[in-house]
Amino acid sequence: MAGQPVDEDHTVSALTAAAECRRVLRAHGLPVDMAWVPLETAGHWCVITVTADWRQRFGPAAQELTREIAETVLATRFGRWMARVIVLDDDIDPTDLAEVVWAFATRGHPRDGRLTFEDMPLLPLMICYTAAERMTATGPKLAHNCLLPEPGPQRPRRCSFAHNYPPEVRRRVREWWGESGGGG
């Protein structure tokens, strides 16, 4: 069994899984921008970002898009060692674990944004499953719909220094902050 992340097998398997998931999802015509398997999750999460035009290409049903993405990912040979599939808008960088965790925590409804897939094939080494599930190599998998509402008044704005100020203002603030030794 692999060690606590990040271990050498996490880097090889996660990078390969991410590339293959992206290829398979696009081959199925799904509006996928990126697939990433965060190394820190020991390959147990697959984070998918969808293109900004996904509603025009797929329709307005975020939950159905999440279901189709998850079913496609979990059907791959790598799907056996993924316990969760997280679907996000493409304003999130899936390679930035801090952004992923923030988006997962703030954009995914705790009940309505979750899809459960029962009796799915799994890798028996995954300790998040019970002994009985590991013995039968089947157990539940989750997909999380963390897609924002369509653009308009109901869509929350992303609020951060990087997203709310023009580049020139950010540059001047950083210069001032550096010159003043912390803004004092």
From TrEMBL:
Domain (3-octaprenyl-4-hydroxybenzoate carboxy-lyase-like C-terminal) ranges: 10-139
SUPFAM superfamilies: UbiD C-terminal domain-like
A Pfam entry, by short name: UbiD_C
UniProt cross-references to Gene3D superfamilies, sorted A to Z: 1.20.5.4570, UbiD C-terminal domain-like
Organism: Streptomyces monticola
Protein name: 3-octaprenyl-4-hydroxybenzoate carboxy-lyase-like C-terminal domain-containing protein
Alphabetized InterPro entries for the sequence: UbiD, UbiD-like_C
Lineage: Bacteria, Bacillati, Actinomycetota, Actinomycetes, Kitasatosporales
